[in-house]
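Exam revision sheet. Question 4 asks you to relate a sequence to its structure. Input first:
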Amino acid sequence: MSKSQDIVKLDPESNLRVVARCRLLPRAPCHSGPAGRSGRAFSTLCRMRRILVTGAATRTGGRIIRHLERASDTEVFAVDDLDPVEQFASSFERLSIEDLSLARHVLDLEPNTVVHLQTVDRSAFQGATRGHDQTGVGTQALLGAIGRCKTVRHVIVKSDGAIYGAGPRAPSVVTVNSKLDRSGGGYQRDLEQMETFVHQMADRHDHVAYTIIRLAPVFGPTIRNPVSSYLTLPGVPTLLGFDPRLQFISERDAVNVFLHAVERPAPGTFNVAGSGQLYLSRILRLGRRIPPHMYRKVGAVYASRDDARHVLDRGGLLGVFPEGESGFMKPVWQAYQVQRFGRGGFVRLSETAGAPVVPVAILGAEEVHPAVAVSKRLAQLVRLVFPQQRVEEIAIFLNPVPLPVRWHIRFLPPVLPEHPGTEPDPLRVLERSEDIRRSVQTALDAQLAARGSAFC
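Answer key, structure tokens:
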């Protein structure tokens, strides 16, 4: 008797979540009968599970085959029209998916399970027409052959999250039942047509479990696809005022989800992606797509711990402004009121690098361009043009020309690291950061009390 179950996680170490509810089917029983088209006795099918995998030339397909062929009761047959990039021991046939010879090959093999991966968009190197034929016409021919094959009990079809489209009116968050935004071009239409074929076949054949898996873009060190090629460019071009939210799935999780579907047949459509999402601007910062050497040539470094450690390890002097944006966006009535020093990253860097912290109190800098007001609406406009800026308020200055204010710079006694070369306690980091902030505030208060006019 079948039962229902939510599939929510595949690997304790994985961050993968599958959004769908499925109906689990019992494994199809074996039946005795005459010999199959392959000439083997039908009793062999009772002992060996036969799995056909299309798209075996891809890295994901090759790795799925390598995992499946480890089982002693499983016989795997691989098909693609390109040479595999992953090595495996299973039988491989070089056949074009839109060719009827593949349909005849399916009828001869009489598989129990079909894993159809050859729905990837290959139009970049095969042409748009060939890519359309593989996604639409090829799937139609393959599913037609599966409908005639009496031994097939489970069909797993790889689809793509691109089926939802990416138009300006498309929803930011989609579910399996979300309405498709038909603005994604030919590939999206091919995916929609392919899934329509699968649903039609599922309605005709109640004895076969059809599973559609819509994957987020697969990302990893060995995967080459349009998304990975874009994000690994030396300089990644972005659209002004556009900072999309993206989801990915690791190459290991992409393999695991198909293995899970093979072992536990579950008819239905599933969206599969990594937990959470990232803005494109954050992805570029994490990937350090802006070359750090460009900053070093003008005397600055990229805002990362690795670059800061690089300067300290070479004996350089590193200047840090721990107030961040809140420091220079203060209105004039909050001048010289030192804001919180973030999460104390400079203290952690000091401890791990074994470098002292020299607090500096600067009087005069906050009077060069005195801010008469702060605006949240202006900050919203700035974020539309520069999405990577996360400021909540922007200061409004009245003087475009800097005022001739005299600066007073005071260097305070250095603060030595307590345990050089070790990772400090998080609470101690915050405590030492606050102690340094208070010392700078005390020095500024003393300078303000002793100073007369700001211009002399």
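Marking note for examiners. The first helix runs from residue 43 to 47.
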